[in-house]
Amino acid sequence: MAADETRVTKISTITVGKAANRDCCLVQIHGPELGKKYVIEDVEYTIGRDEGNHIVVDLDNVSRRHARILVRQGRMFVEDLGSTNGTYLNDQEVRQAQPLRSGDLIKVGGSIFKFLDGDNIETQYHETIYTLTIADGLTGVSNKRYFLEYLEREMGRSHRYHRALSLMIFDIDHFKKINDVHGHLAGDHVLRELAQSVKRLVRREQCFARYGGEEFALVMPEDGPEKARLFAEKIRKLIEERTFMFEDKEIPVTISIGVADMTADMTEPTQFIKVSDANLYRAKKAGRNRVVG
């Protein structure tokens, strides 16, 4: 088998206590095999970089034998196998075998799996796949595809009804340094925590998305220039004052924000994004941790 292929081993022998009878599976929602479903058909199911595992994750931050799913007294558990970078269940490090519930997220190196268990597993799976088409697997907010579609719709609506539309683009200052000093798992943790912190401030009619890497976008219909800038400053201050902790270490985080307002000559999302991006660049050139627009 080629090194870049994911190997899934299915064991068909029927034994007492088979996990297959429980209709359990893992769905990769972040990583090299995005959207792939792995049916758990044995009482022990291993994940790692070696091809001998049931699920092979070909990433350099995944150990050769990283983690396993196992059955104990009819319940499913996840256990770390002494991996270098650890295994995380719903963002908490797994230090001993932890029970699993349907919908739990298991992080193995740079990949994330969603555990599904129940009678309607196919329905759950297809719902998960649909979510992957509109949501970012790592942060849980909208993805770039959904953001671009939303922005195009709102620009058309703004032109038709002559209503204000503002766009905010921001990214994390010196994010590469966070990865270099604290590791990529810490960087992923910061991205998730930041996204969820901002998401709590976003109204239903707005669109908050991960635009790419450490960059995020927020579309604000009908707020007008002054409200948009006040909201941007509120978000900047929130992140500056928030404490980000990973493995008992505090990570200082700030963001730079570029804000733009739609004008009559803007007909394409790329035109709107270009102005907001230019203001983001100005914010960084002016010293970072600030709003420009």
From TrEMBL:
Enzyme Commission number, as recorded = 2.7.7.65
Which chemical reaction does it catalyze?
Answer: 2 GTP = 3',3'-c-di-GMP + 2 diphosphate
The protein depicted here goes by the name diguanylate cyclase
Q: Which Pfam families match?
A: FHA (PF00498), GGDEF (PF00990)
A Gene Ontology molecular function term for this protein is:
diguanylate cyclase activity
Q: Where is the FHA domain?
A: 45-94
Q: Name the SUPFAM superfamilies on file.
A: Nucleotide cyclase, SMAD/FHA domain
Q: Which domain of life is it from?
A: Bacteria
Could you name the Gene Ontology cellular component terms for this entry? plasma membrane
Supply the NCBIfam families for this chain: GGDEF
Tell me the Gene Ontology biological-process terms attached to this UniProt entry.
cell adhesion involved in single-species biofilm formation; negative regulation of bacterial-type flagellum-dependent cell motility
Limits of the GGDEF domain = 163-293
Q: What class of enzyme is it?
A: transferase
What InterPro entries does the annotation carry? Diguanylate_Cyclase, FHA_dom, GGDEF_dom, Nucleotide_cyclase, Rev_trsase/Diguanyl_cyclase, SMAD_FHA_dom_sf
> What organism is this sequence from?
Stigmatella aurantiaca (strain DW4/3-1)
Annotated signal sequence is none
